[in-house]
Amino acid sequence: MTTTASQEAFLQAFHAEYPAVTAEAFGRGHAPDGRSSYEILCDRVAGSMRVLDLGCGDGLLLEFLARRSGRQLAGVDLSPHSLALARRRPALSEAKLEEGRAQELPFADDSFDACVSHMALMLMSEIEQVASEVARVLSPGGVLACVVGGGAVGGEAYERFLALLRCTIEETPASQRIPALGDKRTRSREGLDEVLGPAGFTAVDWETVPIDLSAPGEQVWAAVSSLYDLGPLDRATLDRLREAFFAEVRDMTTSEGHVPCAFKIHLATARLR
Ligand SMILES: C[S@@+](CC[C@H](N)C(=O)[O-])C[C@H]1O[C@@H](n2cnc3c(N)ncnc32)[C@H](O)[C@@H]1O
Q1: In this structure, which residue's CA is closest to atom 23 in ligand 1?
Q2: pLDDT tens across 48-67, in order?
Q3: 122 C-alpha vs ligand 1 centroid, how far in Å?
Q4: Which of 26, 56, 125 to mutate to test the pocket of ligand 1 (most atoms within 8 A of CB)?
Q5: What is the full DSSP assignment across 48-75?
Q6: Which of 4, 6, 70, 147 is the S-S candidate for 125 at Cβ 3.0 to 4.6 Å?
Q7: Which atom of ligand 1 is nearest to the CA of 125?
Q8: What is the Cα–Cα distance from 172 to 237, expressed in whole angstroms?
């Protein structure tokens, strides 16, 4: 199997088991202005009527987009299980939801005014091919707006969880490690410019926003433990990680049992020339 094929096989298998994992973990997170990362992204394409969601998962972002009436919506994802959940959303009954790869979009040239992607672009390999496909299906002047993960804010539970996870993975046999996913250039403004510029996009507008996920401990654990890296870990390793996590955040847990937790998102927007 090629590297790309094994990455995509991993993603498909993971989402067969956890088809709504991202929306469940991060949908309730909120920025300082109270909006979720999904709503922030939705607002970035407020004026666009034909919108494609790349790596749409279970369709939460598309549901926000559907609140504007008259919009033509489409989504593409590798995971048939996540798409099955998206198809169950009444607001998406008219949306074109296709199983497929962002590297070979099943849509005609000039089909969309905007393309959005929430926590998915950063997982995609052959990223130049994705950029050229997005440019093909967008109309001239169309917008690409993406949210990519930016790591921990610091001084809260997610930072401590990531440190524990790093140690756990180092001690874990290779058979329980996930393949390297995506292209790290999608995680920086300079990297994205390098990818998107040759496909015909303007320089990337880049904004970093903290997203608060503070909640009762069990809810914070559910969010942080939804990362792909935990998928292949065996039960005993998971139990040890969970125990270590709760010990690690004890000193920051409030008397009501709330644990401070936050992560950063990068919001990248570029326009097709
Ligand atoms: C972290 S999930 C995010 C799902 C959804 N956008 C959300 O934020 O709720 C990433 C999604 O991207 C999809 N994905 C990853 N690589 C893809 C590719 N090359 N083409 C299409 N979908 C892809 C995965 O199947 C998965 O559903």
Answers
A1: 55
A2: 999 999 999 999 999 999 99
A3: 9
A4: 56
A5: -SEEEEET-TTSHHHHHHTTSTT-EEEE
A6: 4
A7: 19
A8: 9
* Whether the CB of 36 sits within 6 Å of ligand 1: no
Q: Is residue 144 part of a domain?
A: yes
Residues 183-209 have pLDDT tens digits of 999 999 999 999 999 999 999 999 999
* 68 occurs within a structural domain: yes
pLDDT tens, position by position, 233-259: 999 999 999 999 999 999 999 999 999
Task: Give the domain CATH number at 98.
Answer: 3.40.50.150
Q: Does ligand 1 lie within 6 Å of residue 75's CB atom?
A: no
Domain-embedded: residue 165:
no
Q: Which whole number is the average pLDDT over 142-152?
A: 97
Ligand 1 centroid – CA 258 distance (Å): 30
Handedness of CA 25, 264, 6, 132 (dihedral sign): positive
| C-alpha distances out from residue 205 to 47, 209, 211, Å | 17, 13, 19
In a domain, 205, yes or no: yes
Q: Identify the domain containing residue 37 by its residue range.
A: 3-153+180-212+263-271
Cβ 41 vs Cβ 267: under 8 Å:
yes
